[in-house]
User: Fold this.
Amino acid sequence: MAKTNEQKTILVIGLGNPGDSYYHTRHSLGFMAVDRFAEKHSFPAFAMVEDNTMASYGKFGDIDVVLAKPQTFMNKSGYSAKKMAKHYSLFKDKKFSNLWVINDDLDILTGKIKISQNRNAAGHKGVQSIIDQLKTKGFVRFRIGIQPTTEAGKKIPGDKLVLKVIPLKDRATFDKIVNDTVLAMETALGTGIEKAMTATNQ
Assistant:
């Protein structure tokens, strides 16, 4: 794995489930976001760098950016995150603010994105796995809302939603959500997390 010690490195972990059958589900929006960012900024193709992680490396301005996709299933995402965080000295330097995790979030309405830090997993098994393995909540999260609005205002159970393939009629909506997530990442890289929170968390 490439590593630069002289300048800032941001490690971005997009969460999802490996395999084509899972890619177009809400639970894999983290994968879609890092893929879209890589495509937009001409990063090289993702390649296996550990036995359980695919990654791509590039720059955004003068910032080194590592995009990672754990190839474990969602509830084991922390094993990949721990290896990558260790490689980039995030444990040693206590720079968990340089670790960004992108995940779907059932507590946020579809179309909304919120950036947070030092937050509980709130039932998201991938995020909980990362917290358990890193022993910290100090990383930054880009939380992509996936909760649809129902006529009765009731939430739909997660197990009936996150692993279902997104219907073709809804693909354009989620394509925009992925693009908006990339814009939030760009804002955070360009202006810092605090300003990105102000711009995004509305």
About this structure: The two ends are 37 Å apart (CA to CA). Strands lie at 9-14, 47-50, 53-60, 63-70, 99-109, 113-117, 140-147.
